[in-house]
Amino acid sequence: MTFSIVPPHLAVEAMRDNGYKTGAFALAELMDNSIQAGAKNVELLCLEDAVVINGRSADRIAQVAVLDDACGMDKSVLQIALQFGNGTRLETENHTGIGRFGMGLPASSISQCKRVEVWSWQEGIENAIYSYLDLNEIKDQVMSLVPEPTPKDLPNVWRSVGKNFSKSGTLVVWSKLDRLDWRTAKAVINNSEFIIGRMYRKFIASGKTQIRMASYVMDDLKKAKIDQLAKPNDPGYLMTNTSTPEPWTEPPMFEEWADDGVSIHKVNYRGEDHEVSIKYSHAKKSAREGVNPGSKDHGKHAARNLGLSVVRAGRELELDDGFTDPSDPRDRWWGIEIEFPPALDEVFGVTNNKQHANKLSEMCKINMNQLLELEDVNSITELKEQLEEEDDPKAVLVEIVNQMQSRRATIRNLLKAQTKNENNDGAQRHPKQTPEGQATELTDKRKKDGYEGSSDADEALSKEKKMKDIVGDLVVNAGLDLVKAREAAAATVDNGQKYLFVEADLETQSFFSVRQKGGSIIIALNTNHPAYENLVEVLGQDTKDASEPDLRDRLQKASDGLKLLLMAWARYEDEQPDGPRRMGAQGARLDWGRVAQQFLSIE
Question: In this predicted structure, which of 40-44, 117-121, 293-297, 473-477 has the lowest mean pLDDT?
């Protein structure tokens, strides 16, 4: 007597809980097969039937079908398509499209219904062949093998409601719908259009594939209750003619970050070169104008598209909301899309239901500074090289995720600057009377005394080169838009100033960063650091309408903040062990103090 390792009737029942988020994601698996097979037209068809609920009649979803005009299947392919874990794209050399795992049709179907039927044809619908799976028959151990496909006419009901019957194609029908999320066809279509329009936005926008969504009632198949084409839903909001509400249906609601919002990474994996592209975008200022733009229709739409868009072979796997902060309203106003080929599935950790890229998601949740400390390395480059030496696939992800985290912080800072009220109160000062101007004069004196800085050599650059270098740094590292970056750079270069202050959303524990570009020293104040709130922000607030008690409170808060900042340094110095480290900290304090004494000794 022989026994199966897992009895089929028990295994299939367990497979019903296979992780599809909603019925829309399960339907997408069927569409994957259609698009992979070359379909130009895909139809989501819903049939409702009247049922009696509490003494009254109501239309409820009875069957759902996906029809396509792709190449169709012969008997052997159809039988394979209904097997779990089998398929025509399992071999490595076939990992080129959106399909792959051999689980899509049966796994997605049984996650929503107890019976799935498939008709497919290659020489006209009159030559259609048919097979099916039925969970009740499997459970009762009547069915243990996929039935051999046999000729069978398409039911008249589907002939009546389908529009795109061609010489070849496939029809998949779900019935006995016991796990579908929605009770009505309208709910199925409305919820599916948002998800499916996002998943296949590239196919729809390019005209490669058209997805029709229609619903009918069994008793009246002549007139559709709903009949519409799915519009692309772009979470990066750079596409035109999308499902985004007015006034952003036609024009894009976002714009590319910087001059070119696309970053290309060349990845060598298992001896072959592949491209990973990352696209960055952010809301136009006009999209965020007015009172509480997040409560408007386009703001609510953006809130449903929150996260990192992970795209594989042109088809979105998921929006990874682990890359966002629910408490930060800015996160609905940026878009990041990463796209990679199926050959990198193992690197990114693509699941068999094509809804997640687990390894990418896990890496995105790691703070890179903490990772460097844990690995005891000094830079991302060093960590990547170390991982490559150990042949660790994470080497590919480290550099990519580090860039995404850094640029997300920059874009967040840009979004903050969009809505920040600028304080125009007070008279304009001559450039030489500003702290930047005074510090520039003092720096010139120090250079004459023999003190050289690494930025000094670039002072000989042309004005155009200085502008280009400074603007590039302000856009990439501080999140300024091009207009503001150019204004800030021009003010610095035209006035011959050495120093430039900006505010940036830095993902570091430093109060500020120092960068040298175009002969200038760019000081970025970290708006995430408590010192910014307690010193810079409190002192920079508008004083025009402030009361005397309010002004006293602000000064007290600034005074307390300064003391706490100095005490933090004192504690840091106190914690250093006797020897070189303590002497180094003390030396840094003394050297900074000498320069500060000179800079602050101003009339």
Answer: 473-477
Report d(CA 409, CA 501) in Å as an integer: 18
d(CA 555, CA 539): 7
Superfamily of the domain at 8-229:
Histidine kinase-like ATPase, C-terminal domain (3.30.565.10)
Which residue is listed with tokens 């690995």?
375
Six-digit token string for 429? 């000062």
More confident residue, 14 or 499: 499
For residue 256, report the phi and psi dihedrals to the nearest 5 degrees.
-65, 140
Using DSSP's 3-state secondary structure scheme, residue 280 falls into strand
Q: Distance between terminal CA atoms of the chain?
A: 101
Residue 189 has pLDDT above 70, yes or no: yes
Query: Domain limits of the chain?
Result: 8-229, 254-416, 429-528, 547-603
Q: List b or e across 451-480, with b for residues whose CB sees 16 or more CB atoms inside 10 angstroms.
A: eeeebeeeeeeeeeebbebbbbbbbebbbb
Q: How many residues does the chain have?
A: 603
Tokens of 330: 């800015």
Query: What pLDDT, in 10s, does the model give residues 226-251?
Result: 999 999 999 999 999 999 999 999 99
Distance CA 588, CA 252 (A): 51
